[in-house]
Amino acid sequence: MLSKNQIKLIKSLGQKKYRQQLNLFTVEGVKGINEFLKSNYKLQTLFTTASVFETESHLVQDITEVELKKITALKNPNTALAIFEMPQQRLPSNKGLKIALDAIRDPGNLGTIIRLCDWYGVQDLICSTTTVDCYNTKVVQATMGSLTRVNVTYLNLESYLETTKLPVFGTFMSGETIYTSNLPEEGVIVLGNEANGISKSVEDLVLRKITIPQFGTSATTESLNVANAGAIVLSEFRRRSIEK
Amino acid sequence: MLSKNQIKLIKSLGQKKYRQQLNLFTVEGVKGINEFLKSNYKLQTLFTTASVFETESHLVQDITEVELKKITALKNPNTALAIFEMPQQRLPSNKGLKIALDAIRDPGNLGTIIRLCDWYGVQDLICSTTTVDCYNTKVVQATMGSLTRVNVTYLNLESYLETTKLPVFGTFMSGETIYTSNLPEEGVIVLGNEANGISKSVEDLVLRKITIPQFGTSATTESLNVANAGAIVLSEFRRRSIEK
Fold this sequence. Notes:
The structure is a homodimer. Chain A is of the alpha/beta class. The first copy, chain A, has helices spanning 4-12, 16-22, 30-37, 65-71, 107-119, 137-143, 157-163, 200-203, 226-243, and strands spanning 24-28, 43-48, 60-62, 80-85, 97-101, 124-128, 151-155, 168-177, 187-191, 208-211.
């Protein structure tokens, strides 16, 4: 049975403030929870309506469907909700290809970008402190477990770009076209905010401005979705590394 | 002032059933509405809290902020809501590059894919009848006006693929890698459902199975987001057309 305090705790983890105070976050659904269980993330408590998990039993608490409905953030909850501990932040390595986000606000976009990094073997995702929290419930759900395999770090983006020895690329409406410019195997690719793109202070630290050429005859499309732009650019960087 | 019947009508347009009965749909926000006003779409009524639109004044009705809140589907409504007429469905042309969707369910994904088609000059987007309605409020908002420039057609996908003379490509977890296989300038690229991919009956009609190679060492990522996969594949098709 769920106690009032447990319900209160879980509800509070819907807010960034409490996640950070308590160093805890929630994951829902059998598939997602299993991805976190087999990773280095540390389980605090697992609430489930069915005995389908292989983990330390003293951390598992059986609940009813009615109780699950009280704690879920989903419209259609799926079997279980788990509380995990947030890992300590690990600084990005100084080699390889990285993605950096300048004030991405939409949880779905961040989740999709984390999946994308996982697919293309980008180990570090660097986020400005103005980017949505990766432990936000919607982000965690959208990552489909990829969050366990990508190191997401929140830091002062300007300071990071100033000090990194890797070449810094930024996606803009105009710049070198990605299809024909020389793209190295290592570097930081900056993606900007959904509405405003890359901020002026970050733009000043970009070494090479790159762009995705538009093929429509109308040429009035304002922009691609940021996760889509990231997908196209990352694909092109990785394609070059095979070509070599 | 808004009448009760007007409020009822607008609310009803949140449902596909009523949109199809009445042949009407809604668009919100100044930017989005302006894109539809300058397109071939026919305005029925424009409700606005500010005189910022250049259009036939007998179709414009001033409303208050309080009234806007009664009819909006958004958390933060922006100035205006317009009702437009749905255009008659136009069959896809028999040339060029096309995207076909097999049961895409998420409005955000469909909206993003419509923007993508617009960016890459894909004039026809073919949707299975099981794909989410492109006049769904969330889809219209996510397209950022691109819906006015892409011809979206709902039809029996199997029949279409059976009869088209264009080569049919489908994205799968295994197949020819997009980076090295020969990609023509014309064809239909099929993208599958978010959870289940391309259905068996559609798979049987695919001429060439293509795949996006995975670069992660873990190789456990299940899939990319469908709009991201579409972005990567479409980018690669278009890149080849410049290379030639």
